[in-house]
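To the wet lab folks,

You asked to see what we're planning to order before we commit. Fair enough. Below is the target structure as tokens, and below that is the sequence we designed to fit it. If anything looks off to you, flag it before the synthesis order goes out.
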């Protein structure tokens, strides 16, 4: 497809920019960072609330290293993994400790920019109106006709010409919506008219039915209140003239855009195709039904990512469950023709974490390999062929959401020809503790009037806070005091209705 070829060409340009940015951000992130998981007392059934991290406490900070034991480095090297060094060059990770420290990863804002620059918009195509919902307008919506396209009665009543009283037609016939009255209304005359009907030439106003009274055996219409010239007539072109720009390119087609497009005469829209996304869920421990049991847990990401991706304007072509099988992962990546593959889990350094080694075997280019954000720091973005991108989401569910919003959303936005999200800000109702070098993404509830309340249960493996949230607050390195203004990443379905959030 020509579009794909064009996309690939500008993708190369985008890659250069992205890699330069990546190199810069790598240079900025050289200090080693221990990453202890919190060691908290767990409480059994019937005990108090399950353990939680208060929102002003960083769940990553409260686990001191065991006495006399050195904390592990943040990013454990893998044999043979290619990475971009601080100068933008590449090297092999040998795992023998001789490679430069990868540090904390790309700063969060830079990671989002890198993801947005990693690709180019897909080739626009026409779509019937009925199939255009959720796509992005690739061309501005311009009016194909005046709206209204004729002088229209805004009320049920009478079209009147000149000052009253007015003489009514002897046959009592009126003008209904959809019926074109052709006779010119002469001064001193009136004709019954329905809302939405075309106002006859010569009419100077519409008199609402509740403001008129018919006397003299139905012959004469009197107004019970003064009406002004043009009253209750919607003049042709009041909303737009033919050729007016109604909605800019890059707008997500929602129901209102569909309605407006139909009103002005469109049968199809030129839209960017929905980016096609394939989800690969990794992990032998995952169950797809029933209760967690014997060390096995329910897959929380399969059910969450599909709808979330669709809400971001993507088409989910498949969700595959691959277990911890490197060969299956490699085969699935090779076989995929999606614009973006999302993997979940397997991004870290465990014995069955196959994402890095597999991508290395496939000769992938690393665009982002770790981000200075909590949760979600092992997230990654790589390209393993022309137009073939993979975003690796960490397995911890809230960390996976952080990866989705940090890397997948900007990339999907670019593929779909949408600009960056409109920044939204709010004032924190409580302080949020920070980390020296990492951004934090914290679920918050909209408290109205631009205030956001940080929610509890925001640990990386938890979804309880997120389920009650309207947005994720972007808390900069160092944390944010109560009253600080922070950026919010809205959740696609949230409308500020989190009244009962904990
Ligand atoms: N030595 C190190 N270990 C870890 C590091 C590190 O820097 N050094 N980072 C930790 C952080 S932070 C995260 S996050 C995780 C990321 O791990 P993976 O992406 O490799 O994910 P897994 O190990 O496969 O799983 C992590 C966790 O999440 C659960 N999980 C996985 N998939 C699902 C799913 N679909 N639904 C629900 N839960 C899922 C899995 O059972 C694990 O509990 O690595 C840390 N380790
Ligand atoms: O703690 Mo990990 O940062 O992604 O959840």
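Sequence we intend to order:
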């Amino acid at each position: 497809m020509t579009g794909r070829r064009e996309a690939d060409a500008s993708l190369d340009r985008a890659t250069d920019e992205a890699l330069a940015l990546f190199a810069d951000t790598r240079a900025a992130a050289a200090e080693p960072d221990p990453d202890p998981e919190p060691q908290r007392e767990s409480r059994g059934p019937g005990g108090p609330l399950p353990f939680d991290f208060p929102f002003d406490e960083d769940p990553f900070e409260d686990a001191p290293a065991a006495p006399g034991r050195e904390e592990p480095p943040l990013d454990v090297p893998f044999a043979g993994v290619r990475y971009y060094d601080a100068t933008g060059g590449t090297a092999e990770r040998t795992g023998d400790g001789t490679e430069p420290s990868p540090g904390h990863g790309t700063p969060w804002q830079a990671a989002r920019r890198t993801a947005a620059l990693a690709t180019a918009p897909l080739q626009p195509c026409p779509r019937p109106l009925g199939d255009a919902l959720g796509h992005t307008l690739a061309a501005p919506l311009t009016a194909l006709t005046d709206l209204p396209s004729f002088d229209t009665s805004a009320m049920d009543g009478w079209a009147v010409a000149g000052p009253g009283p007015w003489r009514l037609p002897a046959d009592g016939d009126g003008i209904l919506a959809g019926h074109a009255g052709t006779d010119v209304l002469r001064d001193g005359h009136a004709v019954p008219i329905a809302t939405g009907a075309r106002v006859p030439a010569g009419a100077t106003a519409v008199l609402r039915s509740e403001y008129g009274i018919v006397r003299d055996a139905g012959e004469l219409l009197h107004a019970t209140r003064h009406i002004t010239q043009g009253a209750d007539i919607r003049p042709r072109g009041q909303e737009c003239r033919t050729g007016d720009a109604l909605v800019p390119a890059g707008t997500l087609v929602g129901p209102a855009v569909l309605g407006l497009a139909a009103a002005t005469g469109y049968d199809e829209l030129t839209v960017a195709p929905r980016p096609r996304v394939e989800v690969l869920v990794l992990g032998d421990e995952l169950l797809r039904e029933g209760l967690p049991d014997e060390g096995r847990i329910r897959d929380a990401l399969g059910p969450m990512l599909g709808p979330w991706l669709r809400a971001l304007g993507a088409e989910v072509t498949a969700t595959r469950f691959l277990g911890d099988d490197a060969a299956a992962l490699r085969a699935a990546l090779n076989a995929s023709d999606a614009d973006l593959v999302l993997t979940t889990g397997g991004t870290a350094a465990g014995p069955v974490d196959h994402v890095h080694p597999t991508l290395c075997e496939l000769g992938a280019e690393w665009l982002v390999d770790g981000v200075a954000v909590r949760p979600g720091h092992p997230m990654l973005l790589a390209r393993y062929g022309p137009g073939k991108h993979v975003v690796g989401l960490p397995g911890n569910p809230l960390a996976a959401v952080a990866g989705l919003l940090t890397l997948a959303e900007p990339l999907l936005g670019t593929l779909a020809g949408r600009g960056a999200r409109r920044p939204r800000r709010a004032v924190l109702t409580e302080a949020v503790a920070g980390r020296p070098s990492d951004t934090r993404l914290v679920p918050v509830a909209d408290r109205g009037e631009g205030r956001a309340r940080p929610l509890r249960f925001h640990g990386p493996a938890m979804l309880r806070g997120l389920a009650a949230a309207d947005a994720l607050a972007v808390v900069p390195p160092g944390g944010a005091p109560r009253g600080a203004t922070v950026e919010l990443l809205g959740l696609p379905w949230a409308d500020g209705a989190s009244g009962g959030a904990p």
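Structural context that might help your review: The chain has four domains: 2-35+72-122+273-415, 125-146+239-272, 150-235, 424-490. The chain has a mean pLDDT of 82.

Thanks,
Computational group
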